[in-house]
Design a protein that fits this description.
CATH topology: Arc Repressor Mutant, subunit A
Strand content: under 5%
CATH architecture: Orthogonal Bundle
Number of domains: 1
CATH class: Mainly Alpha
Order of helices and strands: HHHHH
Radius of gyration: 15 Å
Largest sheet: none
Low-confidence stretches: none
Mean pLDDT: 89
């Protein structure tokens, strides 16, 4: 899992500085990370390039624990629901 320490190290700052900077904008690392993951996943779901990619794979690529948490976070953030294809696979449809 991606952590604030990972991001701080990659950007050459201290983790505390990252947290303080985000807090100055009224944000936390967790909320920014969750919003970023949902945004990327939503773009993948809407892109024809990912037509044959299932929701479990999209969830994994975006860093969600599993497809269930992905679906819950997607709904909480956007109100969108993954809709099953006739074969029972959640592909790229949003309802």
């Amino acid at each position: 899992m991606l952590t604030a320490d990972d991001v701080a190290t990659a950007t050459g700052i201290e983790a505390q500085s990252l947290h303080e900077t985000l807090a100055s904008f009224g944000e936390s690392f967790g909320t920014v990370l969750a919003a970023t993951r949902v945004g990327i996943a939503k773009r993948m779901l809407m892109s024809r390039a990912f037509d044959e990619v299932g929701s479990e794979e999209i969830a994994a690529r975006c860093g969600f624990r599993d497809a269930i948490h992905f679906a819950q976070d997607l709904f909480s953030a956007t109100g969108l629901v993954l809709a099953s294809d006739p074969d029972g696979q959640n592909k790229r449809r949003l309802g």
